[in-house]
Amino acid sequence: MKPLRESIDAVGPALEAARLLGRRTAEMHLALAIPTSDPAFSAEPLTPEDLTGDARRIDDQIASTLEALRVKLSTLKDLIADEAALLLSRRIELFARANAITAATAAGQRIRIHGDYHLGQILRTGGPQLNP
Fold first, then answer.
1. For 64-75, what is each residue's pLDDT tens digit?
2. Distance between CA 73 and CA 36 in Å, rounded?
3. Backbone phi, then psi, for 36, in 5-degree steps?
4. What are the C-alpha distances in Å from 110 to residues 26, 29, 41?
5. How many CA atoms lie within 13 Å of 27's alpha carbon, on the beta-carbon side?
6. Which tens digit of pLDDT belongs to each residue from 17-39?
7. d(Cα 130, Cα 132) in Å, to the nearest integer?
8. Is residue 102's pLDDT more than 80?
9. Are 121 and 28 in contact (CB under 8 A)?
10. What's this model's pTM, rounded to 2 decimal places?
11. Which terminus of the chain is more solvent-facing, meaning fewer CB atoms within 10 Å of its CB: N or C?
């Protein structure tokens, strides 16, 4: 059991950072969903056209990602290359899954967005955490 405990201890800080990032991300989305009387920030109904647009954007992202993977395939180590090739072989299924949202009944609302939010936008100071 000692190696397991050492492994858990080693990844503990990363798991805690991921937990805190998840919490802060959820808090941000909850704040963005707060009702407002300002029409520029009001939630809007989700429409079939929105789902079609989302499917197109997802298609573009899948195509771009798979193309980058295809270009780099020969540089990958054997096991990773095998998994990458398997993923590439499933491209039709990936596109079909992305487009499946266009058949869904549009429900819910579109809310304000946070813009360019990704891990590259995260600042971690290493200082004490407020309200963790």
1. 999 999 999 999
2. 48
3. -140, 155
4. 16, 12, 10
5. 8
6. 889 889 988 998 888 888 888 88
7. 6
8. yes
9. no
10. 0.61
11. N
